[in-house]
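Predict structure. Chain length: 395.
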Amino acid sequence: MGKVRRISGCVAAAEAVRLADVDVISSYPIRPYTGIMSELARMIADGELDAELVYAEGEHAQLSVVYGASAAGARTFTGSSGVGVTFAFEVYSPISGERLPVQMAIGDRTLDPPGDFGSEHTDAECCRDQGWIQGWAATPQEVLDMHLIYYRVGEDPNVMLPQYVCQDGYFVTHILGDVEVPEEAQVKEFLPPYKNHHVLDVRDPQIIGPQIEPAMGPPQQYQRKLAFDRINDVLIKAHDDFARIFGRKYDPFLEEFMTDDAEVVIFGQGAHMNTAKAVAARLRNLGEKVGVVRLRTFRPFPAQEILNRMSKFKAIGVLDNSANFGISCGGGVLLSELRAALYDVGDKVKTVGFVAGLGGEMVTHDEFLRMFRKLQEVAKTGKVEKTAYWLPFEL
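Prediction complete.
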């Protein structure tokens, strides 16, 4: 058993990096993720962590630093938020294409405008197709654990892909929670040393870069596709080993809350789903058959798991905490993904989108209550009058 501390999501991420014995860290400040780097700088200064901390001149440089360091055989870490995430965009695909298991924390926030401090998933979701493993933690404890699990999965020889570990700005990055910080011996049992598939060496010169012959592109992209096809099996094994060693069991793909006999559920990701669970519990006390399903792994999207486990509900409300202008259904990415996953069940399961929490606003108890009431109406009548509602304006 480790020591329980009351810490924020930022500090929890830093503790995971320390326990993972990361070699090279690259930082550039932007709130709300900056607290991770502040804590890592303190750890290095106090002798708690032996790592090279590189202060980059911007986010593009941050990713370039860990790109080279990972190729040279170092376990690496970086992070960003909001427009910082998008500023580094050019480097994401080359890192994935080179099959380098760089890890990046995203303390998500809204893009400009309005560029506010609180959570919005738009920044991280912009990166969804760059060939990185991606998931959202909902508590500081899950932040620490997900960082360790993703290092294990990304560095697996059958995967070798980078990872985004996302946590909601302010709602997780800055709010404290009880976190069991494991012993170093436990982490060493769970997380083997990083071994790159090739290592840059001055004695063995080679060229690494994104520009290749056109004919080389399809095989390389197909190799990444095959690597993604292998992730789910590696995720399951990593979660099983994590539960055995640390005593905390997570579902790799979906967390279900009060869903056994539920007729309607709200589906979403991140810390806002904690509020959804509180509202669902209140409605359960009134005898209403409602539940919550929280997505834990966003990339690869667990379409088969969703088809197997969510086709039993009468109506599903999808919370998108992101702005996706012009998207199909008028909602967000999660609504489109869920509807595609449930395509084979036809009209049996009604789906309704809800866009809320934009600009870093809270998604309130009252808003979740209105979502549940709309879903109950849809389940009763069998009619979906509007595929997506933007709260608080349209519901």
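Summary: The chain has a mean pLDDT of 95.
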